[in-house]
Amino acid sequence: MLTIQETSRLLRSFDNILILTHLRPDGDTVGSAAALCAGLRALGKTAYLLPNPELTDTTAPYFRPYAAPEGFRPDRVISTDIAATALFPENARPYAGRVDLAVDHHPSFEYFGAANYVRPSAAATGEIIYDILADLGPITAEMALPLYVAIATDCGCFAYSNTTSHTHAVTAALLRTGIDIRNVNKTFFRTKSRKRLALEAAMLSGVEYHDQERLAVLAVPLSLMERIQATETDAEDISALGAQIGGVDCAVTMRELHLNVWKFSLRTGPRVNATKVCALLGGGGHAAAAGCTIEAPLEEAKRKMLEAIAQVVPDFTL
């Protein structure tokens, strides 16, 4: 695997660059891609982000200034915060076999790039992008703001266990560029739409408890989204809700993406390794936050997830 210095040297050799983000893009993939694009442009490179059709209202402002024009043909392709090519949006799939550099922080990363840099100890891919950009030259405010979005959103505004001293050191360096983080914090961490509140209320009213009430299952069927008329923005990071329930150390959020196609997101404490659970079902992620997709009716999909958890957790009981 590359070092930071080798990665930055490789980037200096690139031009006409397209940067990819993952399905259901979050703050880390968008912020990392936007900051990297800004850094490459500062070096005089031509660089763009491949448009992502699933952007939310909260992430889109950081993405749009760098979106590739229609018809752009890259010479080099980079992915940010994508653990596997299965997480490529539909319009990114033609590039699955030609990623020149992949930068990621997931333990389940599949090393699909011609060159790869992965650091599972990083709280966010944004931390890694910061180190790369710092080796390439000065970090500007234009780079720093999306990097703050990337890092803050992936560590729950520095509340999650993946936050490290390096996370805080990088964030302090970003703040020294003079960026105003008040709007970011309000938008991502302190504001909920009325539809979001209605969605959370419905999820909590139907929560199921298992494993001596240490495990909570919260479901978001398509019918619920339709009834509330909730958007992707309203449902952003909805998997964080279950982990806020007292006494729960394994929160399972199952969201129906299409009829009988369920996206599972696990948020866990030390007792449950979320990556190992999701790996049994074709997914991956981190020890405390991972995901997978199961195609089955609700009850069958839920049963498969509970059986996978039981395989990983020795003291699990229904």
The gist of it:
The chain has 318 residues and is an alpha/beta fold.
| Beta-strand residue percentage | 15-25%
What order do the helices and strands follow?
Answer: HEHEHEEEHHHHHEEHEEHEEH
Total E-strand runs? 11
Gross morphology is globular
Helicity range of the residues? 25-40%
Structural class label: alpha/beta
Strand ordering within the main sheet? 6-7-8-9-11-10
Biggest sheet statistics: 6 strands, mixed
Q: Could you explain the architecture of this structure?
A:
This protein is an alpha/beta fold and 318 residues long. The radius of gyration is 19 Å and the shape is globular. The model has no long low-confidence stretch (mean pLDDT 97). The protein has eleven helices and eleven strands.
Features of this protein?
five-stranded parallel β-sheet, 11 helices, six-stranded mixed β-sheet, 318 residues, alpha/beta
Sequence-ordered SSE layout with sheet pairings:
Elements: H1 4-12, E1 17-20, H2 27-42, E2 47-49, H3 60-63, E3 76-80, E4 101-104, E5 115-118, H4 125-136, H5 141-154, H6 165-175, H7 182-189, H8 194-205, E6 208-210, E7 215-220, H9 222-228, E8 250-258, E9 261-268, H10 274-279, E10 284-285, E11 289-295, H11 298-312
Parallel strand pairs: 1-2, 1-3, 3-4, 4-5, 7-8
Antiparallel strand pairs: 6-7, 8-9, 9-11, 10-11
Helix pairs in contact: 1-4, 2-4, 2-5, 4-5, 5-6, 5-7
